[in-house]
Sequence to fold (576 residues):
Amino acid sequence: MSSEPAAAKPLNPNEGIKAESHLLRGTIAQDLADTSTGAISEANGQLTKFHGLYLQDDRDKRLALKKAGKEKAFIFMLRVRLPGGKVTPQQWLVLDDLAEKIASPSLRLTTRQTFQFHGVLKGNVKPLIQGMHKALLDSIAACGDVNRNVMAPPNPERSPVLQQVYDQAKAWSEYALPKTHAYHEIWLDDEMVAGGEPESEPMYGATYLPRKFKTGFALPPSNDVDIFAQDLGFIAIEEKGKLAGYNVTVGGGLGMSHGNDETFPRLADVLGFITPDKVNAIGEAVLVTQRDYGDRTNRKHARLKYTIEDRGIAWFKVEVEKRSGLTFAPARPFSFTTIEDPHGWHKCADGTWFYGLHILSGRIKDIPGWPMKTALREIAQIHTGDFRLTPSQNLSISGVTAAQKSIIEGILAKHGLAGENNQSRLRLNALSCVALPTCGLALAESERALPEILEKFETVLDEAGLRDDAISLRVTGCPNGCARPYLAEIGLVGRAPNKYALYIGASYNGTRLNRLASPSVTIDEAVKLLTPTIKRYAVERKPGEGFGDYCDRVILPADATFHSVGTVKQETALTK
Ligand code: SRM
Ligand code: SF4
Fold:
């Protein structure tokens, strides 16, 4: 183990793009003005990510356009920065309107508690960002090699401690924002800084981080934010109704590549306990350690999890303590019991109510018989509280007064959306990433396949009498892990069209990764393979034992470790 910064291999080309970008400006402004193409250059495409913007193309149209010798159907995806997933009804209405007028009409809630616009044409990006700005919303650092959207438990008004945790998550998000004025110049037509005060990035430096960096805050017993999947995590420790401080976690991350054993999902380690006033100082020390030691030569090995895996957690802790001038106290006890969002009506400590609304794959759109977008617009028009986006792509309509409760209930009922209780717990817990047609990395369907996948598994669960049992199922179109599939009791990870790697055996509370059960199956094969296991689970489980725990105990080998996801295990046990 070496304590020297990363070795002298050639830097990844992205490092050069960042270094030469004049703090994230590049030639984005010139590229935007070029109407001869709907795209932007490769280099600018890397830089716009730091502004929350991705160049994509409609993959459903790719083949036909290629045959016709035409340019791809270029479109942009814009991701909003929204710490803790909180928006006001006024902001909701602005986002709804912008989606309707200048993007694809749907709004997409993400697994990190924010909105994505899809289908934005190049000429509409600036009006979109300007429209958001008027509603005090931005997309700075929503993507790119920086600290991204910070997650926090989504129902703060339930207790003063939750409110404090939310406030700290928001404060850390602001603290760790890039300081460059580039976003304001390019998108909001602010004056160029050139000739004025020299700009600098005191925390990030001119080349920012080696890779994306994600922070989450959790309040036990709920692990709704999947804290062990975050590069940096703060587990709130509540003592006698007060926030005593946080256990700090580092080095979580899920992305991997099929067939590349050097890439793997990893759960974060707990470093120790800090008091609440130390959050930003510790956060900064973690971030700058990764800035200096993360691998800038290989983007598949550049996340904090690999820095820690290579150099050891003990080394990392010493480095963070040295840089912050602080010492971690021993971690305090905590226990997570669930990852599930509360659904339906719940009364909060402050006397208000919130309604947990299930939104399949986080996709808010109107479909015949299911006018979700219209209903939420009507609610936003009269709602005096706020909306909270959850880490499971759902929505809490929060801060509802007793007087408004019946009005909101009426709107949901009028549109046929008040049926949370009739849905299977599998469905209520399911996540899927976007995948096709917009995601350039998708190898298989995910969001568009989820309804069919659920129906097939629900049939088996109904037969086994497990409709009301909470089982987590998560699907992604590739191994990058955007719906956190390696933390699901049933994970389906796309490999090729209608081919998925099947993972089972994670704990329901997000504290143990699942393991590979079958490397490549169709959805029907996955259902067939799991059917005997589901039926056995229904009769053989111990009292209170979750499906993942049962698979881990009975179906998968007992000696497997967290990092075994790259290896095929016990395929035969499933069919027993
Ligand atoms: Fe993700 C890349 C969508 C959460 C790991 N992710 C992408 C891109 C931008 C594809 C691309 O690079 O071209 C996807 C855009 C699809 C589209 O059309 O919208 C995409 N990721 C998403 C979202 C929208 C999934 C969703 O359906 O909700 C989530 C947006 C989160 C947000 O609001 O910021 C999303 N992505 C995640 C998560 C989950 C999390 O953070 O809790 C992960 C796994 C955790 C992690 O980071 O380790 C995740 N996304 C990745 C990776 C793999 C990173 C790695 O370390 O290997 C990529 C690819 C990459 O970075 O090269 C990726
Ligand atoms: Fe795209 Fe893969 Fe992420 Fe799904 S998991 S959104 S397919 S990058």
Notes: Residues 523-540 form the longest helix (18 residues). Residues 1-13+146-180+202-339 form a domain with the Sulfite Reductase Hemoprotein; domain 1 fold (CATH 3.30.413.10). The pocket of siroheme (ligand 1) is lined by residues 54, 56, 77, 79, 110-112, 114, 116, 148-149, 212, 214, 226, 229, 253-255, 303, 362, 393, 433-434, 438-441, 480-484 (CB under 6 Å).
